[in-house]
């Protein structure tokens, strides 16, 4: 469970929600909403910012899913998947995958 893991690692680090938010460059309400499932699908960059502030790999804090891939891993996976269907469109597919990943993760 996301809230259990996040709260566990936050408490293990001896941090309040406000302190974690400050370290991660987020607001305390954002941390609270993630811990209490009010925000069901936080952005990957938000998850990565939290994990980095906790000094814990993102996969340990949050369940493994597409949001836990690094930008490079996600790009490679998407490009590989789509290229298996149409090799002639490789440049276009790579561009679209890069745009998608940048949109998810930010710059």
N- and C-termini, Cα separation: 28 Å
Outline = elongated
CATH-level-4 superfamily name of the largest domain: lambda repressor-like DNA-binding domains
Counted by DSSP, the helix tally is 7
Helix content: 55-70%
Beta-strand percentage range: under 5%
Number of extended strands: 0
> Secondary-structure element sequence?
HHHHHHH
Mean pLDDT, all residues:
80
Unreliable stretches: none
Largest sheet: none
Assign the CATH architecture of the largest domain: Orthogonal Bundle
Give the number of domains: 2
CATH fold name of the largest domain: 434 Repressor (Amino-terminal Domain)
Which CATH top level class of the largest domain fits?
Mainly Alpha
Radius of gyration: 16 Å
**Backbone structural class:** mainly alpha
Short description:
With 107 residues, the protein is mainly alpha-helical.
What does this protein look like?
There is one protein chain. With 107 residues, this protein is mostly helical. It has helices spanning 2-12, 17-24, 28-35, 44-54, 58-61, 71-83, 90-105.
């Amino acid at each position: 469970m996301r809230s259990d893991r996040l709260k566990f690692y936050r408490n293990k680090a001896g941090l309040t929600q406000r302190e974690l938010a400050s370290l991660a460059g987020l607001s305390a309400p954002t941390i609270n909403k993630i811990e209490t499932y009010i925000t069901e699908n936080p952005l990957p960059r938000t998850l990565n910012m939290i994990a980095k502030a906790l000094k814990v790999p993102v996969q340990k804090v949050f369940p493994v899913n597409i949001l836990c891939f690094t930008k490079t891993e996600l790009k490679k996976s998407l490009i590989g998947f789509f290229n298996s269907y149409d090799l002639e469109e490789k440049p276009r597919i790579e561009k679209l995958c890069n745009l998608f990943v940048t949109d998810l993760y930010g710059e």
